[in-house]
């Protein structure tokens, strides 16, 4: 099975006045991570999470960013550190 969902950075952070939208995007991310951990290579379920568009209005929001690009290695909880070995 292969699946791709569209999430948002709003699923990882809280935007003022957007609680329902933030929660809906967090719900996109959670199942994708859980299915990946539970079913590994048999099921591919990914979520793309676009962020803000770099414009003058959001320049301050982009100072000191940290992006995790690790192919899903840190998707699993450290409770089972050998899960992907």
Any chance you could write out the topology, listing elements then pairs?
Blueprint: E1 2-6, H1 19-39, E2 44-48
Walk me through this protein's architecture.
- With 85 residues, this protein is an alpha+beta fold.
- The chain has a domain at 1-52.
- The protein is 25% helix and 12% strand.
- It has one helix at residues 19-39; strands at residues 2-6, 44-48.
- It has a two-stranded parallel ribbon with strand order 1-2.
- The longest helix is centred in the middle third of the chain and has 21 residues, at 19-39.
- It starts with a strand and ends in a 37-residue tail after the last strand.
Short characterization:
With 85 residues, this protein is of the alpha+beta class. It has one helix at 19-39; strands spanning 2-6, 44-48.
**Fraction of residues in helix:** 10-25%
Q: Determine the oligomeric state from the structure.
A: single chain
Please provide the count of β strands: 2
Order of helices and strands: EHE
Radius of gyration: 15 Å
Residue fraction in strands: 5-15%
Number of helices: 1
| Low-confidence runs of at least 5 consecutive residues | none
Strand order of the largest sheet: 1-2
Mean pLDDT across all amino acids: 77
The major beta sheet can be summarized as: 2 strands, parallel
What would the principal axes of the Cα set say about the shape?
A: globular
